[in-house]
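**User:** Here is a favour to ask of a fellow structure person. Please take any protein you like and set down a full record of it. No explanation is needed for now; the record alone will do.

**Assistant:**
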Amino acid sequence: LAVRLLATTIKDLRNCNLHPDLADLIDAKTGLVIVSGPTGSGKSTTLAALIEEMNSTRARHIIALDSPIEYLYSNRRSFIRQREIPTHSPSFEQAIVDALRENPDVLVIGEMRTPEVMRLTLNAAETGHLVITTMHSATCAEALTRLCMSFPSEIQGSIRGQIADCLVGVVCQRLDYLSAYGLRVPRCEILRASSASRGTIRSGQFGQIATVIQSGGEDGMWSFDRYDRWIRQK
C-alpha cells in the first residue's frame, strides 16, 4: 500500500517555509512557471502554496487540472475551478484545449508528461495566460533540457526560442530534514527570466544555467547553496 499524507488545509508560502521571492513568480500576467524536482520532493505542495497565495491576494480566474486532485481550494479573492483527469476530462491534452476556451487568467497543469502536453502548455503560455506546471528533474537546467529534448531535433531550436520568450521562472526543489527542528523543509534552486537566462536558453547552452543562477542574485535567482544558508539563518 502506498499512502501519501495530505493536509486538510492549504498553507501559503510562509507556512511552507518557502522564500517570499517565490511570490514574484505569480505577479506575471502571462508566461510559464515550472515547479520541478524529484518524486516526493513536495512539488504538489509548493504548487498548492502558489495557488493559495494567488487566491488570497489577487482576483484571478484559475483553472487547475490534476490527476488526481490532491488539494481542494476554497474561493477567496480568486475563482478556482478544479478538474480531475480522467474523471472530468479524458486526458490532459483535451482538458487544456477545453480550458483555453473558458478565458482563464491562470492555467495550472498538474504535470507535463507527454510531448503533446508540453506543446499545448507552451502555446497556452504564449497566448496570454499564466501557466503553472510541474515536472520531474534534479535541477532547473535539467528541467529545461528535458522540456526541449521531448521534441523532435529539427524543431528544438524554435522550441528553445519559445521557452526563452515565455518563461517566467523555474523552481527546482528538494526536501531536507533539519534535525534541530524535527521537520523537513524545501531547499530550492530558482531560475528567473533575465536577459542572461533567456540568451542561454535560446542558444541551447543549458550547461551554463548553473552559472547564470550563481551570478543572478540581483535578478531574484537562488542557488541550492545560497537557499540552504537562508533556511539555516531563518
